[in-house]
Amino acid sequence: MDRASFFSAQAKRKVDAPLRTKARFGIGDVVRHRVFDFRGVVFDIDPVFANSEEWYESIPKEVRPHREQPFYHLLAENGEASYVAYVSQQNLLADGESGPVDHPGLPELFDEFDGARYPLRRSMTH
After folding, report:
1. CATH classification for the domain delimited by 22-124, as one of 2.30.30.390, 3.40.190.10, 2.120.10.30, 2.130.10.10
2. Is residue 28 a contact partner of residue 42, using CB atoms and an 8 Å limit?
3. 39 within 8 A of 30, measured Cβ to Cβ
4. Is the pLDDT of residue 9 over 60?
5. Are 100 and 80 in contact (CB under 8 A)?
6. How far from chain centre, in Å, is Cα 49?
7. What's the pLDDT score for residue 123?
8. Fewer Cβ within 10 Å of end Cβ, the chain: N or C?
9. Which of 70, 83, 88 is nearest to 33 (CA)?
10. How far apart are CA 21 and CA 26, in angstroms?
């Protein structure tokens, strides 16, 4: 599925958000996965799970996160590749103290790493 088809399909999905959610991380925060060896920069936040049912069902039941929590879109990296990841809040830890992330998409959205996080580019703010 190409990017345009993915976003078109996502726009048609109905997601019931709870009245209150508390995102632990913000746009530009550097995080790492609790279990898997990757880290990334938050570039978007869903207040609850808002990906495809197929994606959700592909996660083994014993480690599948609950849907009613924030999910984060990350510009992610590991020792081998850069990619976009979608991760539940329960599986993320703050990781700004480990330094910058090396993802080729960062300059499109963010200014330089400030020692703790990536400030959003001025052209990307309202």
Report:
1. 2.30.30.390
2. yes
3. yes
4. no
5. no
6. 11
7. 81
8. C
9. 88
10. 13
